Amino acid sequence: METGRVGAAGVLQGEVHHIRVHARECLLLLLAHLRPETVPKRREAHTLMPLPRQRSCQTVANEEQDAELAGDQGQEVERVLTSLAIVTVYALVLVGVFYFAVQRDWRLSKLVSEPPTTKEIVGLLTLDQNTLLTLSQRFIFLERMVYWLNGWNVFNQYPWLGVGIGNAGFFFPRFAPAMGWATFEIRNILYYLNQLPNVKSFWFRLLAETGIIGFSVFITWIYVLFQSARSSLRSQDPAMKTLALAGSLSLLAFIGEGFSIDSFAMPYMWVMAGLIAAIAMIYRREVEKDKLAAFIEPSQEER
Predict the structure, then answer these.
(1) How far is CA 292 from CA 106, 137, 233, 299, in A?
(2) Is 211's pLDDT higher than 80?
(3) Separation CA 282–CA 273 (nearest Å)
(4) Distance between CA 269 and CA 251 in Å, rounded?
(5) Predicted TM-score of the model (pTM)
(6) Maximum average pLDDT range among 41-45, 71-75, 98-102
(7) CA dist., res. 142 & res. 78, Å (int)
(8) How many CB atoms within 10 Å of residue 85?
(9) Is-contact 240 232, C-beta < 8 A?
(10) 215 pLDDT exceeds 90?
(11) How far apart are CA 147 and CA 189, in angstroms?
(12) The predicted structure's pLDDT at residue 44
């Protein structure tokens, strides 16, 4: 009986020792995952003779890391598929709108039935004025092309600083394409109306009146506004995210509409710019506040 009790006590002590070693190894693995610098160096004996239960702890930790990695990859794949689905839907909507427009607008119908030739496409890409005027006459927007090309010609003559804000109209008779003089609208403006013709394109007017320097400054300002709106989309406030999205879409709309208007007095442009600047400033303050709070909390915990 005494011998049996001694043997049972020895087995029990061995199991207790084994559990202690196992608990210590699990604690070391947990500390290594949280704060690697606080883990003491293990003895060489533990490295040379790992216990079976130590391997199980490492396996669990590896499985958790693999699960987190798989979850991140799954979320990334889901985002990519969602983006592709949205792009596909937009493409189908655009195709449908174009098909409906072709049935209603004779100019689009003519564009489909009589597309530009290869030579005309090359002329478009190289900005050949004769090609641009010929195609614009075919599709009945010759006058608008004459205005645009007049601004482009003024820019070519005064490329660096332009001719000054509001002065492009004074150079219209000098740089207007010859085909433009054959149109009733251009002759009526030059000979009968007591007003200066304008370029009818914000971007061509910006080039003609401010040159490369002014155009570059304005484009840089638009880019900064767009990046500010994009950064504000990361805000946790739904109202801020909505305003940031509205600002981004307004900028894109303004870029497209700039080919049809040529005025600096459009109020929505400046309201949009002020709105984007305001929400960007609020978002930056929120980020700075969060960083300051994250810096102060560890200091209080150490105290």
Answers:
(1) 62, 63, 21, 11
(2) yes
(3) 14
(4) 8
(5) 0.61
(6) 98-102
(7) 48
(8) 10
(9) yes
(10) yes
(11) 12
(12) 44
